[in-house]
Design brief:
Strand content: 5-15%
Oligomer: single chain
Number of helices: 11
Radius of gyration: 21 Å
Largest sheet: 7 strands, mixed
Bound molecules: 2-acetamido-2-deoxy-beta-D-glucopyranose
């Protein structure tokens, strides 16, 4: 007789396809299934965070703390120009946005893009409760992360967005200072919609989901970065070079990842770096963070019991078979003719 786990695993793609056929699109976001409330909860404690990433578990076994540690680690690794313009793609319920705003100095502009309007609403509530009067200009975008030239005019990755004359700045034109005098802020009626370009484009645990493929997506990110100093920083999951064709056919629909992001991946860090350089990036750095991620995540999930034990098993298998959790940082070069 076949082991029930094998039957279950074999049925998952079919189940997933059935689910895809009947559920509205909003429910198909892979992480909409993860209850971030449940994951962040600690028995007997008030927990207000809604983190939803894989976590960096070196110094903790609590989900929220590990998630914050991973987010902070990626921000440090980015080493971007401070006090500039940040675009955070797939910010979830907004905890990473708080991280940017709490930085000293805070960014001048913070643009937040997520594909779920529920995430936008939750993040807006969170930010306005913690930062009712931010010095940062914050703009919200609810749309697919992928930018289609000629179609998505208001997309933050549209390098022509500033030239289309549409302003969506949420900043007030006038601010009363301490003496009660009304000060004309720098922004006039013709407020430019702000950057691009961005000093930092920050993508935590999400880039592998973006269609049509990682190289294509990164090519659309490059022109939205500030020449010479702008940085993209993200975490990625790299399949082993010898991944079996069975997995390359099952995993994309199971994990909601474009097929090419499983089947057509660089076969190691040298190839990965070369890929980014071909797209046009310079100063590419790739770090292997697997050790701080897989075991801690598996241990946490296993402790939760039930169906999470199977997910934990999956994470352990991934680690054993050579899947890498990596952090990537890459810079846009200076424009030609500049130094
Ligand atoms: C971070 O950036 C600064 C300024 O560009 C540079 O001097 C420094 O060496 C960088 N730090 C790391 C760890 O790369």
């Amino acid at each position: 007789m076949l082991h029930p786990l094998i039957i279950f695993t074999a049925c998952l793609p079919l189940l997933y396809r059935l689910v895809v056929a009947v559920l509205p699109a909003a429910y198909l976001e892979p992480y909409a299934y993860w209850s971030s409330e449940g994951l962040n909860r600690i028995p007997g404690q008030e927990v207000s965070t809604r983190w939803r990433n894989m976590g960096y578990w070196a110094d903790t076994n609590e989900y929220g703390k590990a998630n914050e540690a991973l987010a902070t680690r990626l921000l440090d690794f980015a080493n971007a120009t401070e006090g500039g313009a940040i675009l955070d793609i797939a910010h979830g319920a907004g905890d990473s946005l708080l991280l940017h705003l709490s930085h000293d100095p805070p960014p001048k502009h913070l643009h937040a893009l997520t594909s779920l309007s529920s995430d936008t609403l939750h993040a807006q509530d969170l930010i306005s409760s913690k930062y009712p009067n931010p010095s940062t200009d914050i703009q919200w975008f609810t749309s697919s992360a992928s930018f289609r030239p000629g179609k998505d005019h208001d997309h933050p990755l549209n390098p022509m967005r500033g030239f289309l004359g549409r302003s969506k700045s949420t900043r007030r034109d006038q601010d009363a200072d301490e003496d009660g005098e009304v000060e004309q802020s720098l922004d006039q009626d013709t407020t430019p919609p702000g950057p691009p370009p961005y000093d930092l484009i920050y993508i935590l645990d999400a880039i592998y989901h973006f269609p049509p493929s990682l190289p294509h997506f990164l090519a659309t990110v490059l022109p939205a970065l500030t020449p010479e100093t702008g940085v993209v920083a993200y975490t990625d999951i790299l399949p082993p070079p010898d991944l079996s064709p069975i997995w390359t056919s099952i995993l994309p629909s199971l994990l909601s990842i474009p097929g090419r992001n499983v089947a057509a991946r660089p076969k190691g860090f040298v190839e990965y770096k070369a890929l980014l350089e071909r797209i046009g990036y310079v100063e590419v750095e790739i770090e292997d963070w697997s050790e701080g991620v897989w075991n801690g995540l598996a241990g946490f999930l296993r402790e939760r019991g039930g169906v999470w034990g199977w997910v934990a098993w999956g994470v352990e298998q991934a680690e054993k078979t050579g899947w890498k959790f990596v952090a990537v940082r890459a810079k846009r070069p200076a424009l030609k003719g500049e130094t």
